[in-house]
Automatic annotation (TrEMBL):
Pathway(s) of this molecule: Cofactor biosynthesis; adenosylcobalamin biosynthesis
Similarity field: Belongs to the precorrin methyltransferase family.
CDD domains (UniProt xref): Precorrin-4_C11-MT
Native source species: Streptomyces violarus
Name this protein carries in UniProt: Precorrin-4/cobalt-precorrin-4 C11-methyltransferase
Domain named Tetrapyrrole methylase: residues: 2-209
Example GO BP: methylation
Enzyme category, top tier: transferase
PANTHER family given in the database record: COBALT-PRECORRIN-4 C(11)-METHYLTRANSFERASE, SIROHEME SYNTHASE-RELATED
Domain of life per record: Bacteria
The protein's Enzyme Commission number: 2.1.1.133, 2.1.1.271
Lineage of source species: Bacteria, Bacillati, Actinomycetota, Actinomycetes, Kitasatosporales
Keyword tags: Cobalamin biosynthesis, Methyltransferase, S-adenosyl-L-methionine, Transferase
GO MF annotation, one: precorrin-4 C11-methyltransferase activity
Length: 249
């Protein structure tokens, strides 16, 4: 049997992929992060499926559930918020399943930063303004950041920076990015992206911390800082230019 790591999307239940929903509907066991995954998604599971909320489980306990379901002959849906490729803690689960010789597959989902960009109605890569997006976080009570991946270092690039798991440390984020981006650099915070209770905060880098705290946003949010958030008057992309050679060989 197979364990399927499924990206549940950023919050709205209908932002799971078609493949993700179909896979979920075919699994007799579903492990889900109850604090992050919308309950409506569980309706996609078979009526008699065994549902396990992993919010209070340790890695060992989660692994034991996955292995147990496999040994009982069941396909397993391991439902994660967002997309499994970033900040999902999937890597250590896959490592454990490799050791236990349990097969698994990964079904991608819509990441939080993509949902936030959609809510802001912004393309994050804009011709001549910015073509690089950095996805990162800050280290506080969580795992330490690798050497060279601190905000002060990453900020030197001037690229659009997207911070996950950092809303509670917005003052620190601003302090470390101000020397590289400037006080007037566009910034935004999107909490609960795509959900009915979504919160969108826009401003400049020097005012975004105050606005975030005023809105009471502490978690389940992404912080974005970069010039592409306020880009206007930029050159059209060469992709659809009339000057582009379009002859097909």
């Amino acid at each position: 049997m197979t364990v399927y790591f499924i990206g549940a999307g950023p919050g709205a239940a209908d932002l799971i992929t078609v493949r993700g929903a179909r896979t979920l509907a075919a699994c007799q066991v579903c492990l889900y992060a109850g604090s992050l995954v919308p309950r409506e998604l569980l309706a996609e599971c078979p009526p008699d499926a065994r549902l396990v909320d992993t919010a209070q489980l340790t890695l060992d306990e989660i692994t034991a559930e996955l292995v147990r379901a496999h040994e009982e002959g069941h396909d397993v849906a391991r439902l994660h918020s967002g997309d499994p490729s970033v900040f999902s803690a999937v890597a250590e689960q896959m490592r454990r399943l490799d050791a236990a010789q349990v097969p698994y597959e990964v079904v991608p989902g819509v990441p939080a930063f993509a949902a936030a960009a959609a809510s802001l109605k912004r393309e994050l890569t804009v011709p001549t303004v910015g073509q690089t997006v950095i996805l990162t976080r800050v280290a506080k009570r969580a795992t330490a950041m690798p050497e060279g991946e601190d905000l002060a270092t990453l900020g030197r690039s001037g690229a659009l920076i997207v911070l996950h798991l950092a809303a509670g440390y917005v003052d620190r984020v601003v302090d470390e990015l101000l020397p590289h981006y400037g006080a007037d650099c566009p910034a935004a915070v999107v909490a609960y992206a795509s959900r009915p209770d979504e919160v969108i905060i826009r401003g400049t880098l020097d005012e975004i911390a105050g606005k975030t705290k005023e809105a009471g946003v502490l978690r389940t949010a992404v912080i974005m800082v970069g010039r592409t958030l306020g880009a206007e008057g930029f050159r059209d992309s060469h992709l659809y230019s009339a000057e582009r050679e379009r002859h097909v060989c």
